[in-house]
């Protein structure tokens, strides 16, 4: 293939990063996005390890640092609102070395601005059907448009439409970890100044934080549950589920929940991972959460998206447009890295959501005593070590 045309489904972090690198390697990418524009807002995310090198090679690391959340610290509170323990922002967020924290929407905007004049974006549309043939992929869009591309890549998240069309039903690949997450913007009634407060109940965690980039605040909820059947596009149903799950909780939870009905960025989903035996079939591949979602509990979803997009574009370029060789190289380079980061999710969530009141009492006692314990810095370093090790578990090639 000469100057291959590649359709990317999803203007996600993975999708826009992939578009950037494909264009840089001489491909012709097009991004189709169901939303009317690149999504603003969202929660704070971390860019760690190898992903820092990717954004550095893109020339946007300094901009990312200028857009940092600048969260100064965090505290764990009890039901009465008393601060049981406090620590600095990097320790509270599990960050080490040069890790960068930024709002997801700010990163999305930076990536879009980097590509908007070089890449065709098709907003308010999505893929309705794919027909993979020997000479290309025939695509029918929901708008009724038709086009043929040399390759198609799904960068459309946990509930990937591309993966469903090319590989099969979602239930074959998505593994529910037994927890649910919700996050949305709320008024900053607690007058937080770049600070995070976390409340822990039995099977229920709630937190709220403010950042340097936001005059309001964000509220986040994590709770354990048996699988819940719900419509991924039915916001009212999701809000009823969330309200029911936290009906018996104290602290600021009732007031935080009041903000969900008017929040412009309400998000609710299961904490799940994606496990696939292969990330490509014919001329179609998947990247980021669509291929190897590690769940938000891993803290590595954004870094996986950035690195995965870089590697996929690079391997396709190194293969001279031979998509079979390029896809094989992508899997060879990325699988160990994806596996190492997916291991973080199940381990992290057990520390974030505690099952019993007994566990909570022990944890609160330990946290309250932490500042008096000798060697506390070494103890915290041991907690952060697995994250840093996973974040650096790949040596990036120069393509």
From TrEMBL:
Q: Which Gene3D superfamilies match?
A: D-Amino Acid Oxidase, subunit A, domain 2, FAD/NAD(P)-binding domain
State whether keyword Oxidoreductase applies.
yes
User: Is Phosphoprotein given among the entry's keywords?
Assistant: no
> Pfam families attached here?
FAD_binding_3
Q: Which UniProt keywords apply?
A: Monooxygenase, Oxidoreductase
Recall the GO molecular function terms of this protein's record. Answer: monooxygenase activity
Q: Which InterPro entries match?
A: FAD-bd, FAD/NAD-bd_sf, FAD_aromatic-hydroxylase
- Domain called FAD-binding: residue spans: 6-340
PANTHER family hit by this protein: MONOOXYGENASE, OXIDOREDUCTASE-RELATED
Q: Which protein, by its recorded name, is this?
A: FAD-dependent monooxygenase
């Amino acid at each position: 293939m000469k100057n291959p045309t590649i359709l990317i489904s999803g203007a996600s972090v993975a999708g826009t990063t992939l578009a950037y690198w494909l264009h840089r390697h001489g491909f012709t990418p097009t991004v189709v996005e169901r939303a009317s524009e690149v999504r603003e807002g969202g929660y704070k995310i971390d860019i760690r390890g190898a992903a820092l090198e990717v954004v550095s090679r893109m020339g946007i690391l300094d901009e990312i640092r200028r857009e940092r959340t600048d969260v100064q610290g965090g505290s764990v509170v009890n039901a009465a609102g008393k601060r049981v323990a406090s620590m600095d922002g990097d320790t509270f967020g599990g960050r080490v070395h040069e890790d960068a924290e930024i709002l997801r929407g700010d990163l999305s905007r930076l990536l879009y601005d980097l590509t908007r004049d070089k890449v065709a974006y098709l907003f308010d549309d999505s893929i309705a059907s794919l027909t993979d043939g020997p000479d290309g992929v025939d695509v029918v869009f929901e708008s009724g448009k038709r086009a043929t591309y040399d390759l198609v890549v799904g960068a459309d998240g946990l509930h990937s439409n591309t993966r469903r069309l090319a590989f099969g039903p979602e239930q074959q690949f998505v593994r529910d970890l037994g927890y649910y997450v919700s996050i949305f913007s709320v008024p900053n009634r607690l007058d937080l100044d770049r600070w995070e407060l976390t409340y822990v109940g039995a099977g229920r965690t709630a937190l709220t934080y403010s950042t340097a980039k936001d005059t309001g605040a964000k509220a986040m909820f994590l709770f354990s549950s048996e699988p819940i059947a719900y419509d991924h596009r039915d916001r009212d149903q999701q809000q009823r589920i969330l309200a029911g799950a936290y009906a018996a909780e104290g602290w600021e939870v009732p007031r935080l929940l009041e903000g969900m009905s008017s929040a412009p960025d309400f998000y609710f989903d299961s904490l799940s991972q994606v496990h696939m035996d292969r990330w490509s079939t014919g001329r179609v591949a998947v990247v980021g959460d669509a291929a190897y979602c590690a769940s938000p509990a891993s803290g590595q979803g954004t870094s996986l998206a950035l690195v995965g997009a870089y590697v996929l574009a690079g391997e396709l370029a190194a293969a001279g447009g031979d998509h079979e060789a390029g896809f094989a190289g992508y899997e060879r380079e990325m699988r160990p890295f994806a596996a190492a980061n997916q291991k973080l999710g199940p381990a992290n969530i057990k520390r974030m959501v505690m099952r019993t009141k007994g566990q909570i009492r022990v944890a609160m006692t330990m946290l309250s005593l932490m500042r008096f314990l000798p060697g506390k810095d070494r103890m915290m370093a041991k907690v952060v070590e697995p994250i840093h090790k996973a974040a650096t578990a790949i040596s990036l090639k120069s393509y």
